[in-house]
Design goal:
Blueprint: E1 2-7, E2 15-24, E3 27-33, E4 43-45, H1 52-64, E5 66-82, E6 88-104, E7 113-119, H2 132-141, E8 150-153, E9 156-160, H3 166-181, H4 190-206, E10 209-216, E11 219-230, E12 241-250, H5 259-273, E13 278-281, H6 288-294, H7 319-334
Helix pairs in contact: 3-4
Length: 335
């Protein structure tokens, strides 16, 4: 006997599989395995080094041939085997996704599914009758506005990055900085690399950062990110919540295809879902027309002080030196 439970969230490292409930033209897309006569949702286990979103993207293609779609996470769910004695086995956690497919390619023959069919209502012969009807029921109850995590159109895959993308994001960060600042390959960015890696190690668990990757096949051709933070509430921003967009980049041979504009839409939509009213960014001369077309306006009321740019009349007193002076004065008074 199997038991199914649903959770709002779980640590990413605990998620071992992805299940994708998908629709095409209003009908449910289900798969038939080559060795079975029953029907099931596309899905499968997460591979080493994958984000759970990347696992869902891969499984959806392998088991349905989906070529264009949008996908959203629905909820974490678990499956637990329970023996007749009542003893429970280990709980296995995964993520349930929902996808709307707009176009299929041919079903990949190298994988395990024989065919797909579209159903108006759930079939009677589920492959996992103790699990899949409960997922179906939960989907109906969990309806609501969700932030998409993957989108594929015109051969390009837009995927929300996760903690397992840390090394890729670090490499891309350095590439973007070299391109934006006109830096040669021999310019030392070792400290930036170290601090970027540390940043990506903490920002995803803290949910303070969102990044999008754009793929053409296995190649990354575009990216963008947004950091979320809190400042003191102000008259114009009572919540104090702010979002800062950065790391916007599209490979030169992929520009003027709407990639950067779509990434901006995804980033600002996430800020909107978090009820953040103030979104800012830094604009290069090349990027300014895009941002102005999107609706960003230049600001006049902020200034910046870079470290090392101010000549001090007298060096600031280090905290340790200040304590030493206070202790010395105290000792003198005691004499």
């Amino acid at each position: 006997m199997k038991q199914v439970a649903f959770y709002e969230k779980a640590d990413d490292e605990l998620l071992h599989f992805a299940v994708i409930a998908a629709k095409y033209q209003g009908r449910w897309v289900l798969c038939k395995h080559k060795e079975r006569s029953t029907w099931e949702f596309p899905g499968g286990h997460r591979e080493a080094g994958e984000t759970i979103e990347a696992a869902a993207v891969r499984e959806l293609y392998e088991e349905t041939g989906a070529a264009e779609y949008r996908m959203v996470p629905v909820s974490v769910h678990s499956v637990t085997d329970q023996a007749q004695s009542g003893e429970k086995q280990a709980e296995s956690l995964g993520m349930l996704f929902y996808a709307e497919i707009s176009r299929f390619d041919q079903l990949p023959p190298a994988f395990e599914m024989e065919k797909i069919e579209c159903f108006e209502k759930p079939p009677d012969n589920w492959t996992y009758p103790e699990i899949q009807p409960l997922l179906f029921q939960h989907l109906r109850q969990a309806a609501g506005k969700k932030m998409i995590c993957a989108e594929k159109k015109e051969s390009l895959l837009y995927r929300r990055a996760g903690s397992h993308d840390r090394e890729l994001l670090t490499r891309l960060r350095l590439e973007v900085l070299r391109a934006a600042n006109g830096l040669e390959e021999d310019v030392d960015l070792s400290r930036t690399e170290l601090e970027s890696r540390r940043y990506y190690e903490t920002c995803f668990p803290e949910d303070s950062h969102a990044a999008w990757l754009v793929f053409d096949g296995e190649e990354v051709v575009g990216t963008g990110a947004v950091s979320f933070f809190q400042v003191m509430p102000t008259y114009h921003n009572p919540s104090g919540k702010k979002a800062y967009i950065m790391n916007m980049y599209t490979r030169p041979d992929y520009r003027r295809r709407g990639i950067a504009y779509r990434v901006l839409e995804l980033l600002t939509s996430e800020a909107e879902m978090r009820q953040i009213d103030v979104v800012t960014l830094e604009a290069t001369a090349a990027g300014r027309p895009l941002y102005e077309a999107f609706g960003f306006t230049a600001k006049r009321d902020e200034m910046e002080l870079l470290g090392g740019s101010r000549q001090m009349d007298a060096p600031a007193c280090p905290f340790g030196s200040l304590l030493a002076e206070i202790n010395s004065e105290t000792q003198e008074r005691r004499k």
